[in-house]
Amino acid sequence: MLGSAMSVSSGVSSIRRVAIFGGTHGNELTGVFLVKHWLKHAGEIARSGMEVRPFITNPNAVEKCVRYVDTDLNRVFDNQGLGLQNKVKIPYEITRAQEINSIFGPKGSKDAYDVILDLHNTTSKMGATLILEDSNDDFTIQMFHYIQKSMAPVHCSVLLIEHPKVKYATTRSIAKHPVGKLDKLQHTVRKHRYCDYVVLVY
Ligand SMILES: [Zn+2]
């Protein structure tokens, strides 16, 4: 996936800026460990023609080893959270979301990072699972297919979430191509021309 700057036809511009998020939920330690590792060993994820930036998204929750301090960081990247002004005491994660949006966004703008991989853990028996937020995002679906082939024979599922309340408020959602993982089990399988994915049942 990160071999070099990627571009695909059909109107998708080159992928130049990639962020890897860990610690969105401070007690999910794989992402915390990996991001801290890559902050010290940047050469492992460096690729020519591309910025790859590891980032701890919720450092206060990571320090306490809790999911969040005031509110779930992975649910506040909507217009309400990102636009909240300092009239009342703002929850820590909303202040943090606004900082993250200013660094990696602004969400929905041409300046937003191209890809954000947000690393989570789950206690569900899912194995490695990639989360897709938009079934029309052909670039990300093809990238997932590449990741699945690269990981084989280890199985890697793809989970589609298109529930708007989740889709528009996740930490990774500020990227043009968000990639993440979510802790859900009920699903059905849907066929796609590049890779099959499972769809959440709400
Ligand atoms: Zn999580």
UniProtKB/TrEMBL annotation:
Family annotation (Gene3D superfamilies): Zn peptidases
CDD domains registered for this protein in UniProt: M14_ASPA
Acyltransferase keyword on record: no
Keywords, sorted A to Z: Hydrolase, Metal-binding, Zinc
InterPro entries cross-referenced by the UniProt entry: AspA/AstE_fam, AstE_AspA_cat
Residue intervals of the Succinylglutamate desuccinylase/Aspartoacylase catalytic domain: 15-179
Cofactor: Zn(2+)
Pfam family, one: AstE_AspA_cat
PANTHER family: ASPARTOACYLASE
Protein name: Succinylglutamate desuccinylase/Aspartoacylase catalytic domain-containing protein
